[in-house]
Design goal:
Oligomer: single chain
Shape: elongated
Distance between the termini: 31 Å
Order of helices and strands: HEHEEHE
Helix content: 25-40%
Largest sheet: 4 strands, mixed
Strand content: 5-15%
Number of helices: 3
Strand order of the largest sheet: 1-2-3-4
Amino acid sequence: KICSPLNLYEIKENEHVLEFNVEESLVEILNTYEDERSDLYIAATDNMAYGIIEGLRRLKKNVGKDVYVAGFGGYELNFIMSPKLTTVTFDYEKIGKIASNIVIDLLNGKKREHLKVLDLKLNINESFK
């Protein structure tokens, strides 16, 4: 198991392995919220976060006040969502170039370093205030 920095603060983690879509995240939050009652949800994608937000709405929770939600991706849909999602954005084009160069090198038998540092930006919005 990976050592989590949350352990330093005695924060309980609940990990859910799901497909990266809205519907599955919505169903999962509806099925697990009463048992877990988490204050913070960090989703692997913005779509998953949107599903969590919709589930929390159905449970009458005030996202951004009672419960906080963050995603990853910076999808354009965020501009019409309410509350606006806190998300991590990144340069898709740059990551695509890095990935394609790695694949080409591997196909050509070249060894590659395993660690790449990416430029990420945290955009704090209404879902996290």
